[in-house]
Amino acid sequence: MLKYLTVPVTPFAQNCSIVWCDQTLQAAVIDPGGDLDKIESAVRELGLKLEQIWLTHAHIDHAGGTAELAKRYGLPITGPHPGDQFWIDGLAQQSQMFGFPKAEPFTPSRWLQDGDTVQVGESVLNVRHTPGHTPGHVVFHSPEAKRAFVGDVLFSGGIGRTDFPGGNHPELISSITQRLWPMGDDTVFIPGHGSESTFGQERRSNPFVRGT
C-alpha cells in the first residue's frame, strides 16, 4: 500500500510529499521546492530509500530544489508534462523574482503525458494531465490508497491561479471536472498548499467549482 508524509517547504509553505511503498520502503519525493535538509531528514527518520523525484509542475515553490536533490542522490526526475518546459528554463529568473535560493534548470529524465503511470516499489499511480494553472501540470492518483496529489490545480475551498504565463481559467475548470472528479468523491487530495480535502467535499462547498 502507498504511504505518504507531507512536508511543508519554502516560504510559500508548499506541500512537498514523500510517498513510499510500505512493502519495499522505496520512496519518491513529489515537488521538492526547497528546504532539502528538511526533506532529507524526514526520509532518514522514516527509514526509506529515496529513488525518484516526481513533479506536478515547474513553478519555483514546487521545483526549485529539484536539480540539487537529483544531483545529491543521482535521482531520475519524472514529470511534469512538456508544456512546462518554459517554466523549467526560467527557474533561475523565478528564484530571483520571488526571493528564493538560486534554482538551476534541469532536463527531466522522463516527461509525462495524460494516461501514463508512475511506480514506486509495488505501488502504481495514474498520471493525468491537468493544464490551467500551468500548461504542463500533471497530477498523481493512487486508486488503491484513494489519494491524489494535485499540486496547484485544486485547494480546500479554492482553485489554482490562472494569471501566470500559460494559465487558462476555462482549462483549469475543465481539468478539475473532467480529470479529477471521475476519481471519486471519496478520494482524498493533497493540494500544493493548505489542508487536505476530498473531491466530494469540494464539489459540495468549493465556491469555484460547486455543483460541477
What report would you give on this structure?
The chain is globular, with a radius of gyration of 16 Å. The chain has helices spanning 36-46, 60-63, 66-73, 85-89, 91-98, 169-180, 199-205, and strands at residues 2-9, 14-21, 26-30, 49-54, 77-78, 117-120, 123-129, 138-142, 147-151, 154-155, 158-159, 188-191, 197-198. The protein has seven helices and 13 strands. It is 26% helix and 28% strand. The protein starts with a strand and ends in a 7-residue tail after the last helix. The mean pLDDT is 98.
Strand content: 25-35%
Strand line-up across the major sheet: 6-7-8-9-12-13
Tell me how many strands there are.
Answer: 13
CATH class: Alpha Beta
Cα Rg: 16 Å
The shape, in one word, is: globular
Order of helices and strands: EEEHEHHEHHEEEEEEHEEH
- The average pLDDT score comes to 98
Number of separate domains = 1
| CATH domain topology | Metallo-beta-lactamase, Chain A
Binned, the helix content reads 25-40%
Unreliable stretches (pLDDT < 50, length at least 5) are none
**CATH homologous superfamily placement:** Ribonuclease Z/Hydroxyacylglutathione hydrolase-like
Structural class: alpha+beta
End-to-end separation: 31 Å
Q: Multimeric state of these chains?
A: single chain
Described by strand count, sense and barrel closure, the largest sheet is: 6 strands, mixed
CATH architectural grouping: 4-Layer Sandwich
Count of helices? 7
Region (Disordered): 193-212
Domain Metallo-beta-lactamase: 13-193
GO molecular function: hydroxyacylglutathione hydrolase activity
Cofactor: Zn(2+)
